[in-house]
Amino acid sequence: MCGIVGYVGPRPALPVLLSGLARLEYRGYDSAGVAVLEGGRVLACKREGRLSRLEAELAPYLEAAGSAAPGACVPGGTAERDGSRARVGIGHTRWATHGVPSDENAHPHADCHGRFWVVHNGIIENYRELRAELQAQGHVFRSETDTEVVPHLIESLYRGDLAAAVAEAVRRLRGSYALAVMSPLHPGTLVAVRQESPLVVGLGRGENFLASDVPALLEFTRDTYILDEGEMAVLSPHAVQVTDRGGRPVAKEVFRVTWDASMAQKGGYPHFMLKEIHEQPGALRQTLLPRLGEEGDVRAEEDGLDPAWLGRFRRVHLVACGTAYHAGLVGKYLLEGLARIPAEAELASEFRYRQPLVDRDTLVVVISQSGETADTRAALREARARGAGVLAIVNVVGSSIAREAERVLYTWAGPEIAVASTKAYSCQVAVLTLLALHLGRLRGTLPAEESRRLGRSLRALPALVEEALAGAGRVAEVAGQVAGHEDVFFIGRGLDYAVAQEAQLKLKEISYIHAEAYAAGELKHGTLALIVPDTPVVALVTQPALREKTMSNVEEVRARGGRVYLFAPASLASGAAGVEVLTLPEVDPWLAPLVAVVPMQLLAYYAAVARGCDVDKPRNLAKSVTVE
Ligand code: F6R
Question: Is any atom of ligand 1 closer than 6 Å to the C-beta of 413?
């Protein structure tokens, strides 16, 4: 998501931080900030927008500091050894989650008296409770962020030992975090801690570094400690002490980075798309867990989905483009199945020109990763002009669609760089599942126990996505076979049909193989004519109630010599003959799209690689489509 850098050592900290942040720019961000400590004083600067704005603001200080090159080091000596001459700093590029992109919401954040400075990646799930508690104690907040609770919490717990206060503070946090903390009370020290959000310590000679991502370190060092879950590192110029959650020292092994800068940006993956496919478990956790209680209750009111507003709607239109539209197709099945409310998925480019019959009783859900897609934006305006309620499901906080909608549910997938959408789709489907559960409860169509059961299954879902990712090797083999063909068909029924639609788009857009998705029962009404010996047909079977029907359609394909790849959980694949089975994790049928889409994305990815395509930047396509 966001980017963190930190430095403690003899160099002027500012140029080191800015150079590290520049190397994290590729991740996408909407604001940036730094806080450095030199001579006992904190210099902090935060700006919305590009890093260059921050640099321009800091130009006089940068000139005074000189460059980040090793030559700019302050000479050694006793003062350097005891840390009193150390220069310390933390920096951050923010990708907004809680609170719009703005100078105030940019990191670092500080406590009431500027004694504890914090940068944070991730989401603090219980920040509302903590904020209320701290405000009641008299703490004054300056931003809308979840992060700001951390410095105030440290302030309230500080008894002279920074690391101890940070350790105690993180015990109060729920959610995901990578934190770096700096304090003028401890001038030669940086404290870092992580939970479900990466942090890497860079080891120098007489200086140490911190970063959320390896590229930020490469200019300075290749020797690192990769922090594990719950670990805390206390950095000074000459030492790094790592402890586990229980405060016990951990002997870390040095990991020497051998990747080049471009590989490091991709976290060691050859393409951003593959990295983003693998980021899905984390992205789903970020999106789902803050909205689900331990018992599986959906907490939707915090997102503004109050019964008074939602209760007025009699039907739902899900409007979007491309992959986001395919997420809408899944949403249609979920909303109709769980909340028993009539729902239609529509292409935004069609919706806007067809004088849609929507009114006060209609909820229009617009779905968009970028929040800037021209057709989706126009559809949103059309819906509002007709009096419909508009809820946006968006990944980019503060984007046009987020600002123009009445209510917003954010997908906290983090920046998506590959043109082909993967983790954003999964998070869109996850949010739609939450919406369906919430509406189902409100409308009384879903018993409380069933809703909680599904909520608990959703909490466990990221682990099933991890399991699905573990099957990548076998999918790659199939992709190698598919890559030699020019036509591929995907079939499924119900939710599987919706996933098949996304599967065909993914394959088409990055491998340039012609692909079509068909409702399995529809094959025999025309398309079966295209099945000749060896035609690859991918069959998705995750819905027990539809298994027999889809398997009959599989037989129709087999009878014409088609080559069937069956993606199904073992319980539904058993007994299938004459087909290649790729086993999916066992999952509740309502949640199956979130698992089944993973091998579909991998299939497209490996087929594109096998055909030598430019996976991250497919021909003729752009990431954000702001024209009609
Ligand atoms: C395909 C893809 C596109 C987008 C579509 C809408 O992989 O990414 O089909 O889904 O252009 O974009 P957003 O979600 O930004 O509105």
Answer: no
